[in-house]
Amino acid sequence: xxxxxxxxxxxxxxxxxxxxxxxxxxxxxxxxxxxxxxxxxxxxxxxxxxxxxxxxxxxxxxxxxxxxxxxxxxxxxxxxxxxxxxxxxxxxxxxxxxxxxxxxxxxxxxxxxxxxxxxxxxxxxxxxxxxxxxxxxxxxxxxxxxxxxxxxxxxxxxxxxxxxxxxxxxxxxxxxxxxxxxxxxxxxxxxxxxxxxxxxxxxxxxxxxxxxxxxxxxxxxxxxxxxxxxxxxxxxxxxxxxxxxxxxxxxxxxxxxxxxxxxxxxxxxxxxxxxxxxxxxxxxxxxxxxxxxxxxxxxxxxxxxxxx
Length: 308
Hints:
Blueprint: H1 22-33, E1 50-53, H2 59-65, E2 71-74, E3 85-87, E4 95-97, E5 104-106, E6 115-118, E7 124-127, E8 130-132, E9 136-141, E10 144-149, E11 152-154, E12 158-163, E13 167-172, E14 175-177, E15 182-186, E16 191-195, E17 198-200, E18 205-210, E19 213-217, E20 220-222, E21 227-232, E22 236-237, E23 245-247, E24 252-255, E25 270-272, E26 277-281, H3 288-291, E27 302-304
């Protein structure tokens, strides 16, 4: 296997979000929304609420009170978490949203996920967030659907993980750097569509699939230690895959997968990747007029170079 280690994941099941004693938590929630004209956040069946984190309420308390239709708006990076923040199927769909600065969530315990979703309902979204560390930054299991959009991931073992019969994950426009194992890992029964992402420096494979199907389109997968995309067991890439630039994989661009139409294996010519700038040089092979694809490959467009 040329040094490739098949990854048999032992999932560390997330525990419930950290909660203070019930009376104190209830008082904090009521104070946060008192006088705002909004519904009591603990009232069953209330209308959708936007929780402003952490200025009005902690992420943990917002997660405990969240109901379908809510938005958890993260205004700036809260303190590192000590436990996984979990959402049940009955709380979804909901949105966890940051802003253009991508406020970062991190966890002090390296073998726990940061966010966990159990059978999320369609419409559940994680948008414009940053993540640092954790065993998995965004972890989903069961069935349902969740999308991860325009987020930035740094470190951790696995940055996006999903498994379960009927689970669908969409990962779009994300920058994913320095994963200890995989930027994206999908387990049996699940499906993933990864579009317009930039993956750099995964410690094993950029994308690792086990008995699942994936569509990987217009992604840059760069400097993976072993393979760009690994298809383990009965995994395969769907026919809509292609237009990826898979470059500088330690062993090979693929393991067990068929190379897709218009895939490249060229230096993407990032502007300044060592300082986190993954925009493309004007002469990058990932720009549309040079790649032959219908749009930019990767998460970002042109940011430097002669002709800009």
